[in-house]
Amino acid sequence: MKLIIKIIFFLIIAGIGIGTYYHFEGELRRSETIIGVSVLAMVFILMPLFLIHRWKGKKLSDYTLTKENLDKMRDQKKE
How many CB atoms lie within 10 A of CB 31? Predict the structure, then answer.
C-alpha cells in the first residue's frame, strides 16, 4: 500500500510539473487540463488511499468528542 501511495504521489507531482511547463510554453488549455486532472487525482485517489492506510487498525471513537471522552478528559484534568 505504501508503494502504491508513493507512486501515485510522484505521478501527481510530475503531472503538476508538466502542466506548469506547458503553461510557461504558452499552451494554456493543455496546461490547465493537466494540472486540473492532477489535482483531482490527488483529492479523489491519493487522499482516500492515504487516509485508509493511516487509519488502519485504529478506533475512530478514540478520536471523537463523545460524552465519555469528555468525562475522561475532565477526570484527568482534576488529577
Answer: 19
Identity of the residue numbered 78: K
Query: Rounded to whole angstroms, how far apart are CA atoms 12 and 59?
Result: 30
Buried b (16+ CB within 10 A) or exposed e, 7-22: ebeeebeebbeebeeb
Q: Per-residue pLDDT tens for 20-53?
A: 999 999 999 999 999 999 999 999 999 999 999 9
Count of domains for the chain? 1
Cα 30–chain centre separation? 25
Full domain range(s) for residue 10 = 2-78
